[in-house]
TrEMBL record:
Record's GO cellular component terms: cilium; Golgi apparatus; intraciliary transport particle B; microtubule organizing center
Main location: other
Domain of life: Eukaryota
Species this protein is from: Menura novaehollandiae
Basic and acidic residues biased stretches: 7-19
Family stated for the protein in its record: Belongs to the IFT57 family.
GO terms classed as biological process: intraciliary transport; non-motile cilium assembly
Protein name, as recorded: Intraflagellar transport protein 57 homolog
Transmembrane stretches, start-end: none
Keywords in alphabetical order: Cell projection, Cilium
Subcellular location(s) of the protein: Cell projection, Cilium
Chain coiled-coil ranges: none
Length: 114
C-alpha cells in the first residue's frame, strides 16, 4: 500500500466496532447518559424544565436507547431550550410539531453564538 503500513493500521482502528475497542465500549453511552442526568439534576431540571411542560423525569438510559425518536427529540429540544435560557440567552421553547430541521438549526445557531 502506498501510504504505508502505519496508515493501514490507523484506518483499521477507525473501522473497529464497539466490541473491538474493549469490553466496556458498548456501555459507554449508558455512562454518558447517567452523567448527563446527574448534571441535569444538579441544575434542578425536574422542577424548572419538566414541571413547566408537564413532562416526566428522564430515566437513567433515556437517550442511550432509541425507544421513541419523536418523543426523545422533543425532550432533547426542550432541554436544549431550557439550558440556553438558563445560560442567560432568550430562546423560544420549541413546540412538539415544529419542523425538526428548523428547531435544530435554531439550537445550533444559538450555541454557535456563545
Amino acid at each position: 500500500e502506498a501510504a504505508g503500513p502505519g496508515r493501514r493500521a490507523e484506518r483499521e482502528r477507525c473501522e473497529e466496532g464497539p466490541a473491538e475497542r474493549g469490553p466496556g465500549a458498548a456501555f459507554h453511552m449508558f455512562v454518558l447518559m447517567e452523567d448527563l442526568l446527574d448534571k441535569l439534576k444538579l441544575l434542578s431540571y425536574e422542577e424548572q424544565a419538566l414541571r413547566r411542560h408537564n413532562m416526566r423525569p428522564l430515566s437513567r438510559h433515556y437517550f442511550a436507547l432509541p425507544t421513541n425518536p419523536g418523543e426523545q427529540f422533543f425532550m432533547f429540544c426542550t432541554l436544549a431550550a431550557w439550558l440556553i435560557t438558563k445560560a442567560g440567552r432568550p430562546f423560544e421553547q420549541p413546540q412538539e410539531y415544529d419542523d425538526p430541521n428548523a428547531v435544530i438549526s435554531n439550537v445550533l445557531s444559538e450555541l454557535r453564538s456563545f
